[in-house]
Amino acid sequence: MNAQTLINSLNYRRISLPADQDLDFEVSLVSQNTHELIPNSVFIAISGFKTDGHDLVTQAINQGARLIVAQKPLQVKVPVVYVRDTRRAMATLSAIFYDHPSQKLHLTGVTGTNGKTTVTHLLDAIYRYHHIKTGLVGTMYHKVDNQYLKAINTTPANHKLQKLFAQMVEAKVQAVSMEVSSVALVQGRTWEADFNTAIFTNFSQDHLDYHQNMAEYAHAKSLLFSQLGNLQKGKTAIINQDDTLADFIITSTEAQILTYGINTDADFQATKLHHHAQGTDFTLQALGQSYAVYLPLVGTHNVYNALAAIAGAYVYGLDLKTIIAALKTVTGVKGRLQLVTGPHEINAFVDYAHTPAALANTLQTLKPLTQSRIITVFGCGGNRDADKRPKMTQIAQKYSDLVILTTDNPRQENPADIILDMLRGLDDLSQIEIELDRRQAIRKAVALAHPGDVILLAGKGHENHQIIGDTITKFDDVAEVQAAFTCN
Ligand SMILES: CC(=O)N[C@H]1[C@@H](OP(=O)(O)OP(=O)(O)OC[C@H]2O[C@@H](n3ccc(=O)[nH]c3=O)[C@H](O)[C@@H]2O)O[C@H](CO)[C@@H](O)[C@@H]1O[C@H](C)C(=O)N[C@@H](C)C(=O)N[C@H](CCC(=O)O)C(=O)O
Ligand SMILES: Nc1ncnc2c1ncn2[C@@H]1O[C@H](COP(=O)(O)OP(=O)(O)OP(=O)(O)O)[C@@H](O)[C@H]1O
Ligand SMILES: N[C@H](CCC[C@H](N)C(=O)O)C(=O)O
Ligand SMILES: [Mg+2]
Q: Which residues carry this modification: N6-carboxylysine (predicted)?
């Protein structure tokens, strides 16, 4: 694409054009990252949390940038287009550069505190059962049909997202399930992503390291819905009606609404839940009909996740009968209530619960599955919401017989300080043990377990590493507990 044509799409304030330069060249790439640049790139300078892209323009030019988009004055030898907001310009330019790829995909965005990864995987599985080519964007990886790509962020930076959509279009993907984090919504990573459907799972405490308070966090979540249906008709918002934030989300959107829930009379309602060791039976009441559903996942929270996926697949145009048939075939998502069977009828579950609500749901799910004790091993992430730490310990203590506090990913925080936060306000320490080394904590749990006990390893789920300071080492809860079982 020609550089002049590209920047004509911007609502720019002025262009600084050095005498020996012009804008008549083919743009090879638009990027906000100096490390990605190649000759004839357009570099968009973003003021970030750690770095200001405006300080990196010399490096950008040396890497091949031939045009800079900026919001602060620069003294450089290449043309500069000045805009009010470079993040907004980034979104506009990358959508045009990649030829609006999301408009060629059926795109479903999923937001909410918990359940995003699970809902996107369920929806993906339903599509694939129907031989639909899929894409997936989320915490564990990004996927273009059968090709898995590493995920740095759950929701990638705007230009990376547009590039990913373009790869999906190229691979003839039809339907995309995408996790949309609150942080991404605030940073405009999804601007110009043309969602057909937006799903709201639930709202509870998380990310208060990033958002000032719960009201701001709620507002961030609502952005996915307020931005839906503004431009075009035919968009659908799928809302968990049982959640306290449901009404707020509903009033924030102009899109058509479909609701789901268990406790309330929703468009997609689950009734008569029967929990088994390996899955859940329920009746789906939808569109005036009743359907018997078997979901091979345990926990009421997963019934909510399934309802969201059923509604999402319905909006795509699939038949409810075959959606239900597809659900029967789903396997659990890695690191979400993942069972590791040990000797002496001791079962361990690895679960990504890293919020108070998630931990409560998980422990409430495990409680009826054992006549014996529950031993919970968990820590809290460093450089993340410190306020959720004591709440998680109280929940762990309430539903467990023994709690072993350990490290999660302490990052740049002192692990002992995180433990102190986790103990804040606790009167009774009788069921609590502390073992900072997560490997040893897991071994301790296995050593202390009696026949029939359940061990919950919470917080790290699918993660295959541990971040301590700036060091990232291999660490996998599933492998660790398997090794501990073998030693015992
Ligand atoms: C706090 C935060 O949100 N940080 C995100 C932010 O980084 P930043 O603002 O610190 O960026 P920066 O390093 O200051 O750089 C500013 C600009 O200079 C550029 N730069 C920087 C250095 C350089 O050498 N060259 C260069 O060009 C960068 O490309 C960027 O354009 O913008 C980056 C690009 O979009 C993100 O990758 C990064 O996510 C970091 C890794 C992160 O940990 N974010 C977390 C909080 C996050 O976003 N989490 C959510 C939710 C997860 C969930 O609940 O599932 C997520 O969606 O992942
Ligand atoms: N619908 C739900 N309601 C409450 N808790 C849930 C729900 N679904 C999953 N959980 C809990 O949250 C954990 C994380 O689930 P999942 O990975 O699907 O959520 P997520 O929203 O993608 O999380 P993240 O923000 O870290 O990406 C699970 O391991 C489980 O403990
Ligand atoms: N998406 C979440 C994941 C937290 C997982 C937990 N293991 C941690 O490292 O805190 C975050 O980045 O805040
Ligand atoms: Mg996720």
A: 221
Residue nearest to atom 10 of ligand 3 (CA): 381
3-state secondary structure of 276: coil
Whether 102 and 189 have beta carbons less than 8 Å apart is answered as no
Residue 156: strand, helix, or coil: coil
CA gap 158, 93 in Å, rounded: 10
Q: According to the model, what pLDDT value does residue 234 have?
A: 86
Q: What is the pTM of this model?
A: 0.94
Which ligand 2 atom lies nearest to the CA of residue 110?
21
Q: Which residues contact 396 (CB under 8 A, 6 or more apart)?
A: 359, 363, 376, 378, 403, 458
CA distance 142 to 135: 8
Residue list, ligand 2 pocket, CB within 6 Å: 114-118, 139, 154, 179, 201-202, 301, 304-305, 336, 351-353, 357-358, 361-362, 461
In the chain, what are the domains?
Answer: 3-97 (3.40.1390.10), 101-327 (3.40.1190.10), 338-487 (3.90.190.20)
ipTM of the complex: 0.96
pLDDT tens readout for residues 174-227: 999 999 999 999 999 999 999 999 999 999 877 777 778 888 889 999 999 999
**Which residue type, as a one-letter code, is found at position 34?**
T
**8 A C-beta contact, residue 472 and residue 484:** no
CA–CA gap between residue 64 and residue 255 (Å, rounded): 43
